[in-house]
Structure formats: C-alpha cells, structure tokens
C-alpha cells in the first residue's frame, strides 16, 4: 500500500483556514496555495534519490549529494492544479511538466479528458500529480491511469484538501501510489463537493465565478 501523509503543521493549518474564508481573494488564495505546496513538496520529495559529487569548499574538497531533478516530472491536473505547479518547480526547477486537462461531468461525476501533453516518462522518473481538491477521486484515478499508460511508475499525488471517500477510491484503484494531503475534510455532500471545503479551487484561483 502506498503511503498516506496528512500534514500536521500549524503553519499549514493557519494558511488553509485563510483559504477557506469566502472573503479571501484570488491573489491571496494563489499565494497561500503556492506556500502550502512548498511545504508539502518538502515532505513528498524525501524519497528522491541522490548521487554523490565532489564539492570544493573554501577550505577543502568534500563529498556532497545532488538530486537529479531532470528525472522529476510534475503533472498538474488542469486547471486548478496549475495553482500548485510553481510551488513544486521552485524546489525542483529542472523538472519536466506534463499537462492533463480533465473536468468532472456534473451528471455522471465521471472524469472527461480534454487535453494531454506529456514529456517522455521512464521507469526511474519520480512523478508528482497535482490537484488541490481530491473529492470523489474519479478525476485523480483517470489522471493516474493516464500517467501509468505513459510509462510512469513512481507516482506521488499532492492535494490541498481531500474527502475520505476520495482517498479510499484512489487507494483502492492505485494502491502503489503515495498521497500527500494538507488536510482531510469531513465528507462529500450530495453534489460531491468537499465539506467544509473551500468552494471550487479553480474558480477561486482565477475568478471565473
């Protein structure tokens, strides 16, 4: 079973609380999502492999370790996942980026694909799939199916908020995938929105409603 990590940090709780507030505007919402993504990436990237290098300090030559971030691929699920992209790229700036456009059909609640553009994936790539909200889990499962169909194997999901129902759906379908979440909320309502949640993350990021 993949790892399930739920952040338990006062700074993250503080920032999520501000994001939940309906009066928080898109500028502050984007900044807070970026900051929380940075904190999540710090934890999610613990397993990245390193290689040993020689380093000349001002005093002596010593050994150091480097991450090969060219073997990291970030996959934001459009459009809300774009709000997390810069947070990961700031820590692994040479990573590749794959774009996957998926929306949830309001009637069936199933995922519908509208755009895919990926770099080449190999067995030794570490892949981070980004989406602020893990609600039903259907869109995330679709995204993970696509990533695996492209050759991805070492996959980590990163989300801001998640419903217990969505976590279970993803874990059942993709037990090999690690999941990193800032906070787990209470449940889904009858319209498959996370409760208490924070509304539609994409709309709040880009003021589309």
Automatic annotation (TrEMBL):
Residues 6-208 form the Phosphoribosyltransferase domain. Pathway: Pyrimidine metabolism; UMP biosynthesis via salvage pathway; UMP from uracil: step 1/1. Keywords: Allosteric enzyme, Glycosyltransferase, GTP-binding, Magnesium, Nucleotide-binding, Transferase. SUPFAM superfamilies: PRTase-like (SSF53271). Uracil binds at residues 194, 199-201. 5-phospho-alpha-D-ribose 1-diphosphate binds at residues 79, 104, 131-139, 200. The keyword ATP-binding does not apply. GO terms for biological process: UMP salvage; uracil salvage. Its EC number is 2.4.2.9. GO terms for cellular component: cytoplasm. Allosterically activated by GTP. Gene3D superfamilies: 3.40.50.2020. GO terms for molecular function: GTP binding; magnesium ion binding; uracil phosphoribosyltransferase activity. It comes from the Bacteria. It catalyses: UMP + diphosphate = 5-phospho-alpha-D-ribose 1-diphosphate + uracil. It is an enzyme of class 2 (transferase). Its cofactor is Mg(2+). Binds 1 Mg(2+) ion per subunit. The magnesium is bound as Mg-PRPP. InterPro entries: PRTase-like (IPR029057), PRTase_dom (IPR000836), Upp_B (IPR034332), UPRT (IPR005765), UPRTase/APRTase (IPR050054). Belongs to the UPRTase family. HAMAP family: Upp_B (MF_01218_B). Catalyzes the conversion of uracil and 5-phospho-alpha-D-ribose 1-diphosphate (PRPP) to UMP and diphosphate. NCBIfam families: PRK00129.1, upp. This is Uracil phosphoribosyltransferase. The gene is upp.
């Amino acid at each position: 079973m993949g790892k399930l990590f739920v952040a338990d940090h006062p700074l993250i709780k503080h920032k999520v609380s501000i994001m939940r507030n309906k009066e928080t505007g898109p500028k502050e919402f984007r900044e807070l999502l970026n900051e929380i993504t940075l904190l999540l990436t710090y934890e999610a990237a613990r397993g990245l492999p390193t290689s040993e290098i020689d380093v000349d300090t001002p005093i002596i030559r010593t050994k150091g370790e480097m991450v090969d971030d060219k073997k990291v691929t970030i996959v934001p699920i459009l459009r809300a996942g774009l709000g997390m992209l810069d947070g990961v790229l700031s820590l692994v700036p040479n990573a590749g980026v794959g774009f996957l456009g998926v929306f949830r059909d309001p009637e069936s609640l199933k995922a519908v694909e509208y755009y895919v553009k990926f770099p080449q994936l190999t067995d030794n790539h570490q892949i981070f799939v980004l989406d602020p909200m893990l609600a039903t889990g259907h869109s995330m499962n679709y995204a993970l199916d696509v990533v695996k169909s492209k050759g991805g194997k070492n996959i980590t999901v990163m989300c801001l908020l998640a419903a217990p129902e969505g976590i279970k759906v993803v874990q059942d379908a993709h037990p090999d995938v690690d999941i990193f979440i800032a906070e787990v909320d209470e449940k889904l309502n009858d319209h498959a929105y996370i409760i208490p949640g924070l509304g539609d993350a994409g709309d709040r990021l880009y003021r589309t409603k």
